[in-house]
Design goal:
- With 542 residues, the protein is mainly α.
- Among the domains are: 194-261, Tetratricopeptide repeat domain (Serine Threonine Protein Phosphatase 5, Tetratricopeptide repeat, Alpha Horseshoe), CATH 1.25.40; 426-476, no CATH class; 479-542, no CATH class.
- It contains 30 helices and no strands.
- Helix 3 (52-65) runs antiparallel to helix 4, helix 4 (68-81) runs antiparallel to helix 5 and helix 11 (197-208) runs antiparallel to helix 12 (212-225).
- The N and C termini lie far apart (85 Å).
Length: 542
């Protein structure tokens, strides 16, 4: 969604006192100065309202800006002003092709071809048809584009644009082999050594293949060749941000903004900050972009996520702002543009502001929207249920994440699942199973052995088998003397020590010395305990 709308091209921008040319305006489009370019195209059209190419390239400016509807409007205007000029019909074909109506688009292409002075002899028409086949997201016709571009080069062998487009087509056709594309980009550079466009295309190709360092050097080469070519700085900034060179990225962004400090440019900068996980900085830029009049659901999405991730400010205030942004986001976004993380971050924000019940609903929506991420989300849902002691619901969520394998749960999650089984439905067999897995995976995790011992005890209430002895022994071994004396551990230490002490008194493996050592642990923690006193008063304790 774009904020900027179609400009009435009948208006003469008298404030632009200098004399523009079509080349000037097109160069501003290339430099992503779309608003300024649009004004210059308006001035050119006001001076020469019957020139069809002005309308076509004005539409191209909108297309590059991402405003396809406005592009279509100006191309229609161009057709009505100059019905025998072919380029604006190609513009209409682009619009239709982008919309997926290739049949109607082909009608416009065929008609445009009949309007050339000599059929198939206008190289710019051939190039523009080729761009349709190359640059649309779907329904590409790369072989047809290559044929057209070869025709254009035969007619106009020294035009670098044909070689650039041929490189683009070959790159799309054989993404695993960039050599043919690079060859054509180099040929374009030979024809126009002062143009950085071919170098930036080569850099993007290297970047696409994962050769980030080589791509970086190419972007720098393009910047040196033409310090006014803004996309070289933007692309380099985004690459730097990608491999965590944030300082260099920001330097490149500042150079880009010095050349193109439009609201759209700052929006791109904010998006790059967000992609680079510079969430606090992204918030500041996004707020400024909104103050300049731009509003779309992407901004609200980025604000939602960023307010959750930014930890530099008052967290509760940030979480509330994030929820507000999320509400605005859901009021703006088309249903088919909602993704699982939109529900997820709303759920996280609701949880942080004390609304776990609503948070769970949003996280469940996220899990439904993307079942592949369900594990992560069900883990969060389970934690919220544990927090409110809704153990049965917690078990349901954890079991969905476990999906039959404890490997899908972290050590802490396995512990929480065990606790849920123990305290919820009191399913001590399942609690035993969870704790047993936990103690194998984390042999130094004392609470795991405590839980295992307790689960076993609940299955042998009369201590007929004494199966919990080893778990309680290991629990006590893992605690330092200081740990044993902590108030939080008192009840557990007493439970374990008295159990093991009782084992060495009552089980077939009687051992007076070992019994006394464990009852001594209990006496150290709580000398007033009645069972402790009774043991030491007995013959075995003397």
């Amino acid at each position: 969604m774009k904020t900027y709308k179609f400009i009435a091209f009948s208006i003469l921008f008298s404030s632009l006192s200098y004399s523009q040319t079509l080349e000037d305006a097109r160069k501003k489009t290339e430099n992503e100065r779309f608003e300024v370019a649009g004004k210059e195209f308006a001035t050119l059209i006001a001076k020469e309202p019957t020139r069809a190419d002005y309308y076509f390239y004005a539409g191209e400016n909108y297309l590059e800006h991402g405003d396809l509807d406005s592009a279509n409007m100006i191309w229609k205007k161009g057709v009505s002003i100059a019905p025998l000029a072919p380029l604006n019909y190609i513009g209409l074909a682009k619009y239709l092709w982008f919309q997926g109506d290739t049949t109607a688009a082909n009608i416009q292409i065929t008609y445009a071809s009949t309007l050339t002075k000599k059929k198939d002899k206008d190289p710019e028409v051939l190039r523009q048809i080729a761009t349709i086949y190359i640059k649309t997201p779907k329904f590409k016709k790369l072989d047809a584009a290559i044929v057209l571009l070869n025709k254009a080069m035969a007619l106009e062998p020294k035009n670098p644009e044909s070689f650039l487009l041929l490189g683009d087509a070959l790159q799309e056709k054989t993404p695993e082999n960039g050599s043919p594309a690079i060859k054509n980009y180099n040929l374009a550079l030979e024809l126009n050594p002062k143009s950085p466009k071919a170098i930036v295309r080569t850099a993007k190709l290297y970047q696409r293949s994962g050769a980030d360092s080589l791509a970086n050097s190419k972007y720098i080469q393009a910047q040196v060749l033409d310090p006014t070519y803004a996309p070289a700085f933007r692309e380099n900034a985004e690459l730097n941000m990608k491999f965590n060179q944030s300082k260099r990225a920001i330097e490149n962004w500042k150079k880009y903004l010095a050349l193109n400090n439009s609201t759209e440019a700052r929006y791109k900068y904010a998006t790059s900050l967000f992609s680079g996980k510079k969430y606090c900085e992204a918030i500041n830029e996004l707020i400024q972009v909104q103050a300049n009049g731009m509003e779309n659901f992407y901004i609200e999405r980025m604000l939602t996520y960023s307010y959750y991730e930014c930890t530099e400010n008052d967290l509760q205030a940030s979480y509330k702002k994030g929820l507000k942004a999320s509400d605005v986001f859901f009021s703006l976004v088309p249903a088919d543009k909602i993704v699982a993380s939109d529900y997820k971050f709303k759920g996280y924000l609701l949880s942080k502001t004390g609304n776990d019940s609503l948070a769970i609903i949003e996280l469940e929506n996220a899990a439904k929207a993307d079942p592949k991420k369900g594990g992560e989300l069900y883990g969060e849902i389970a934690k919220m249920h544990v927090k409110t002691k809704q153990y049965v619901k917690a078990i349901d969520a954890y079991e969905k994440k476990r999906a039959g394998s404890f490997a899908n749960l972290t050590v802490i999650e396995t512990s929480e699942l065990a606790r849920a089984y123990f305290y919820g439905p009191k399913n001590y067999v399942m609690a035993d199973s969870c704790y047993a897995n936990l103690t194998v995976r984390s042999t130094d995790y004392a609470p795991g052995f405590l839980g295992l011992g307790r689960s076993i005890c609940r299955q042998d209430l009369k201590n007929e088998k004494w199966l919990a002895k080893d778990a309680f022994v290991r629990y006590l071994e893992l605690l330092t003397p200081e740990d044993k004396m902590l108030p939080a551990n008192k009840a557990a230490v007493m439970e374990a020590a008295k159990y093991v002490g009782g084992y060495y008194v009552l089980s077939p493996e009687k051992d007076k010395a070992k019994a006394k050592s464990y009852w001594e642990i209990a006496r150290t923690v709580d000398p007033a305990d009645a069972q402790v006193k009774a043991f030491f008063a007995s013959p075995g304790g003397k």
